[in-house]
Design brief:
Layout (H helix, E strand, L loop, with lengths): L3 H4 L17 E2 L9 E2 L2 H17 L6 H8 L7 H12 L14 H15 L8 H11 L2
Antiparallel strand pairs: 1-2
């Protein structure tokens, strides 16, 4: 069986927010905790939008800052998650990422989060879904 995030087209395992509905979100969700999206493009878009909000609104600039908010230590082995995402994205966990100079870091970190959340099943996300989500969110 595929991972929960893949089955729900939600590669970031984004929680429900009863006060806000994402574009492409299916309501009610098929899951008691996480959002369900119509397809991967919408789920990837939501993941990238959350990342962008973390950077632009909350001033989070390092992988460690981002993942500590995304996957708090009260629920996750956050240190392991930080190291996995930093390694997969090709950045140091504590170095500020120049998102303003190179917005492709959003995509690298988003894909790394999806890999951590879904394991090998993240390979089931079509690259064109990531590209469409990136164009809608970052560019």
């Amino acid at each position: 069986m595929t991972s929960r995030g893949i089955r729900l087209f939600n590669p970031g395992n984004i929680d429900h927010n009863p006060n806000s509905i994402w574009d492409g979100e299916i309501v009610p969700s098929e899951d008691s905790r996480f959002c369900t999206f119509k397809n991967f493009s919408y789920g990837c878009r939501a993941l990238l939008k959350v990342l962008r909000t973390y950077v632009e609104k909350h001033g989070l600039k390092t992988v460690r800052e981002i993942i500590n908010r995304w996957a708090p230590p009260s629920e996750n082995n956050t240190d392991s998650y930080v190291m996995h995402v930093a390694s997969a994205a090709g950045v140091d966990a504590d170095t500020e990422i120049p998102f303003d100079v190179d917005p492709s870091y959003y995509l690298a970190i988003g894909k790394a989060i999806a890999r951590h959340e879904n394991g090998a099943d993240a390979e089931l996300i079509p690259n064109d879904a990531w590209e469409e989500a990136y164009k809608l969110t970052v560019l």
